[in-house]
Amino acid sequence: MNLSLAAPSAFRGNLLVPLSRCTSCFKLDLRFQHSDGFRHSRCRRSLFKLIRDPRSSRRRGIACSVTEPDNGSDEKEKEADKNGETPRVEDSSEQSIPPPVDAEQLNEFSDENKGQSDVQNMDDSNEVASGSPLPGVKPQKLDEAIKIPKETIEILKNQVFGFDTFFVTSQDPYEGGVLFKGNLRGQAAKSYDKISKRLKDKFGDEYKLFLLVNPEDDKPVAVVVPRTTLQPETTAVPEWFAAGSFGLITVFTLLLRNVPALQSDLLSTFDNLNLLKDGLPGALVTALILGVHELGHFLAAKDTGVKLGVPYFVPSWQIGSFGAITRIRNIVPNREDLLKVAAAGPIAGYALGLLLLLLGFVLPPSDGIGVVVDASVFHESFLAGGIAKLLLGNVLKEGTAISINPLVIWAWAGLLINAINSIPAGELDGGRISFALWGRKASLRFTGVSIALLGVSSLLNDVAFYWVVLIFFLQRGPIAPLSEEITDPGEKYVAIGVTVLLLGLLVCLPYPFPFTEETITSF
Questions:
Q1: Residues 410/282, Cβ–Cβ less than 8 Å
Q2: Res 126 pLDDT > 50
Q3: Is 350 within 8 Å of 344 (Cβ atoms)?
Q4: Which residue in 165, 387, 429, 516 is a FRET match for 416, CA 20 to 30 A apart?
């Protein structure tokens, strides 16, 4: 054990090192250091003495007494140095020895000084301008800079975090809050609950804790920000008014989509509004699938405590609607809850859409004619083409027109809208699902790949063109941070999320196999 004391500051005192703390021999080396341009003073002889601690009959220690020279001694030393003489060192053993100081007290004093130094270093840097403390969060604009007091930072480090939850090794200012780096202890979910409880006991609802993954090194980090930075952004136009306006336009496009006579000349629609009533059955079926989709989101959100905004239905003259944009109004607790909310809508929509699709293939048209389509139309979807081939068999031949129940087309449109929303990109349902399954970094990569593929597809398909524009400007993210992003969702919910993504692929990918008559040869 080495103790180094820096001159010029004079040191006077005793050091008690308990022998019970060391199981082997140790070396006590008392050295005085001096800086450039400052002459160190010579100390009197140090006195080491084995003593017994009066508080315990078992504790023994080494007492170290160091006395500093008085001013007269300093003058004598200087004079001796000039004459080249060596000053006489007086024996200090006869001097009275002050009572020893316990090493625990000395360590506490050192820790206090270290903590004050850390806070002082942090104090100048944690005054930061107000802004978004985390990706995807749009806080209110505050008039004054946000500042977390240095006393609060010390309480966070020493009393809120700890060895049993998250051992802090360093901290940095982070846009209105503080980012703590360190080592996560135990399961992330349990540690988050413990830290959150301590944070609330100390500060109430003043601060919000996030347990995230650092994208630089993929290690856990904790972020504490004032809740005033997390207030939802207000809009100039009331949300319900904007959503209602988009909803009315979507009703019109759904009706228009199911009237083939108006598809070739959209401008004639206003002169033939009476024809829109012919598209009412198809619009109702597609709207029913969309409504069940949104209902699934809201039921799952209610179960998990997630607050959703009013859905904005996006009109489309090609397929009637692109679905709805639904904002998450509060902070989602974890990835499993996000997965439940994001996957519930597509699962409900796919379930109803597949049921209606199967009924369309099984039930004959009500008028006996139905809708006459070319068999090649089923090449546009692997799912629809596979089901058609399975149920229609040899009736489905290349270049042959067939009559089907219009319910097939209406249900197929609803499945396509579900599939488009299941694309793993941005803040779409599929983007939120990929985030919940594999984390933020993987979600960003899926978003980039999906937008690139849609961009290439838009050269051949106008639906892909409009959809990539919509994603890029409205839905590309980033997804707002979750309270705790480290814990993976349960296996059951992972299977549900993967199923949603696969169904989306099956609906969007083409059916590659030709529709030919199967011949059975008997030997």
A1: yes
A2: no
A3: no
A4: 516
**Rounded to whole angstroms, how far apart are CA atoms 292 and 298?**
10
End-to-end CA distance of the chain: 94
Q: Which amino acid is present at 5?
A: L
Residues comprising the chain, all counted? 523
pLDDT digits (tens, 9 = 90+) for 147-202: 688 889 899 998 999 899 999 999 888 767 899 999 998 899 999 999 999 999 99
Position 356, amino acid = L
- How many CB atoms within 10 Å of residue 264? 7
DSSP 142-177: PSS-EE--HHHHHHIIIIISBTTTEEEEEEEEETTE
**Cβ pair 179, 166 in contact under 8 A:** no
Answer whether residue 293 shows pLDDT above 60.
yes
Residues 347, 73: Cα–Cα separation, whole Å: 90
Tokens of 245: 């306006």
Mean pLDDT computed over every residue of the chain: 75
399 CB-side CA count, 13 A: 2
Instruction: Give alpha helix (H) positions in 232-279.
Output: 239-257, 260-263
Type of residue at 474: L
At 183, list the tokens: 């080592």
Distance from C-alpha of 441 to C-alpha of 447, rounded to nearest angstrom: 10
Q: What is the DSSP letter of 474?
A: I
Please state, in angstroms and rounded to a whole number, the distance separating the CA atoms of residues 172 and 399. 67
Q: Give the SS3 label for residue 496.
A: helix
| CB-count exposure of residue 87 (10 Å: 0-12, 13-18, 19+) | middle
Short-list 376, 384, 437, CA closest to 401: 376
Radius of gyration of the chain (CA): 37
Contact 296, 344 (CB under 8 A): yes
Q: 266 vs 263, 360, 476, CA distance in Å?
A: 6, 28, 31
- From residue 492, give the alpha-carbon distance in Å to each of 34, 216, 334, 367: 67, 30, 16, 44
